[in-house]
Amino acid sequence: MARFRTWTGIALAGALSLSLVGCSSTGGKRAEDARKAAAAQGRAAVDTPRWTVAMITHSGDGDTFWDIVQSGAEQAAVKDNINFLYSHDDEAQQQAQLVDAAVDKKVDGIIVTLAKPDAMKAAVARAVKAGIPVVTVNSGSAESKEFGALTHIGQDETIAGEAVGEELNERGRKSAVCVLHEQGNVGHEQRCDGLEKTFDGKLQRLYVTGTSMPDVQSALEAKLQTDKSVDTVVTLGAPYADTAVKAKEGANSKAEIDTFDLNAKVAAGLKNGTLGFAVDQQPYLQGYEAVDLLWLYRYNADVLGGGQPVLTGPQIITEDDADALADYTERGTR
């Protein structure tokens, strides 16, 4: 497999995923078949009690990134004999209500995202007060410890943005647009902040309505038509990369399209050259480790991270890496 460039010095979580990323295409298929068989039979690798873990995210409907997170969590749940419950809402108040509902059910552990931390603080505090261990995932690394969570699993969004800025400098880019598709998401702002910190060129922010791809496309197309100096577009989620490519074509722009996050379409875009690079934060690993760490805590009072986030990224993925990742993106685990 190609050696991906990484900006994180914490490889703790990666060691637990060697069986996933180190297999051949044949071995990967066998492992996936075995996973499906185990899931179908409800087979676990442990004999601990069947604890219940709830994951509540800020995902909207149809977001492929969160499908990957959920898949990783479900795989760990099979192994750990966990009854896994998943729910989501992209409205912060509704997400907080889902956390409250999980507390009322007296689940044995909660995994939650903190894309809009202020709205989630009271709900997380209620869970902690009830004695339910909480792990935050993906977003909210800065607030996780303050809110009483055991640990946070994900990438540092500012560091990820800084990595993108450095990559753009290496590519000789001079004028970039950072496309924010979810206003109020602190992680998205941090990505653009980090990019701006290290990028030697000009950075502009474009706020779009991420729930409507036609609106995203038209807003970006208009930007590229009116500002011909833009030579780079950075989207903050894999589903928006393809839309950015369409906007580029509509505007007859020569801008390079780069993106945060990875999926099968992004991998194909890297391979055929319609995308420059992607920033992978390994969502499968985020879901898997969140469930696994709650099991470890319930079983043995283990906590990873030493008070710091357990980082799963960022990794810069380019055309050179696309073939090596094809098996994993096609099966929906990268």
UniProtKB/TrEMBL annotation:
InterPro entries: Bact_Solute-Bind_Prot2 (IPR050555), Peripla_BP_I (IPR028082), SBP_2_dom (IPR025997). Keywords: Sugar transport, Transport. Transmembrane segments: none annotated. It comes from the Bacteria. The keyword Cytoplasm does not apply. Its main location: other. Residues 54-296 form the Periplasmic binding protein domain. Gene3D superfamilies: 3.40.50.2300. It is found in: Cell envelope. PROSITE patterns: PROKAR_LIPOPROTEIN. The keyword Protease does not apply. Belongs to the bacterial solute-binding protein 2 family. This is Simple sugar transport system substrate-binding protein.
